[in-house]
Design goal:
The chain is an alpha/beta fold and 205 residues long. It has a single domain, classed as Beta Polymerase, domain 2. It is 18% helix and 28% strand. It has a five-stranded mixed β-sheet with strand order 1-2-5-4-3. The protein has a two-stranded parallel ribbon with strand order 6-7. A two-stranded antiparallel sheet has the order 8-9. A hairpin with a 2-residue loop joins strand 1 and strand 2.
Length: 205
């Protein structure tokens, strides 16, 4: 989107959503707004239905763990004390415009955000993925269960504090004739690659 169209969209969002916008900025030719978790459903309906917005398509929804962002968190729109966020990427096909929406769960120990399945049905699998990988619970989702990991998987693998080796491992037991879970047998270690270059590597000839 060019600068004039971005400015127009930004002004429209301000006029339509008013104080429901927590913050707003432009980056990489796209407008990003942050809203409160309690306003997700109401704002999503407005973004879809308002004649000047018409965001009829949810392109993507993903979870974010801001636990290791440190002092950069403020610049990235992550308020202190709120670890998990959900990011929505919206497209208006008829108006040819895009929008990024950020929401932060208020409780970092049990992050909850309302489901938008009733507004954009495609959110079904996106929300299940964020639930599976980040542990974000989407209130109102009628089939919230894991989608990428095994049913017996322990933890949420995209959380920053999740160990690379995981918490349990699985194997097929010949005696019991079934898959069993057991403690991880791999010793945790850090692997630093050893780089070998020829002499004069990169010199111009």
């Amino acid at each position: 989107m060019n600068g004039l169209r971005l400015e127009s969209l930004s002004n429209t969002l301000t006029n339509v959503l008013s104080d429901r916008i927590v913050s707003k900025h432009r980056l990489f030719d796209e407008v990003t707004i942050e809203i409160k978790a309690e306003d997700v459903k109401a704002v999503s309906e407005i973004l879809r239905d308002h004649a000047d917005l018409r965001f009829d398509t949810l392109m993507d929804l993903c979870g974010v763990d801001y636990s290791t962002y440190g002092n950069e968190a403020t610049l990235l729109g992550a308020p202190n004390g709120r670890r998990f966020g959900v990011v929505y990427h919206l497209l208006s096909v008829s108006l040819n415009q895009r929008l990024r929406v950020k929401v932060f769960a208020e409780d970092s120990d049990f992050p909850v955000v309302d489901s938008v399945m009733g507004i954009w049905p495609v959110a079904n699998w996106f929300e299940r993925e964020a639930f599976d990988l980040f542990g974000v619970v989407f209130a109102g989702h009628n089939d919230l269960r894991r989608i990428l990991t095994d049913y017996g998987f322990v933890g949420n693998p995209f959380r920053k504090d999740f160990p690379l080796s995981g918490y349990v491992e699985m194997r097929y037991d010949e005696d019991q004739k079934r898959v069993i879970y057991q403690p991880v047998s791999i010793e945790p270690r850090e692997v630093t690659p050893h780089v070998i270059r020829e002499q004069n590597y990169g010199d111009s000839h």
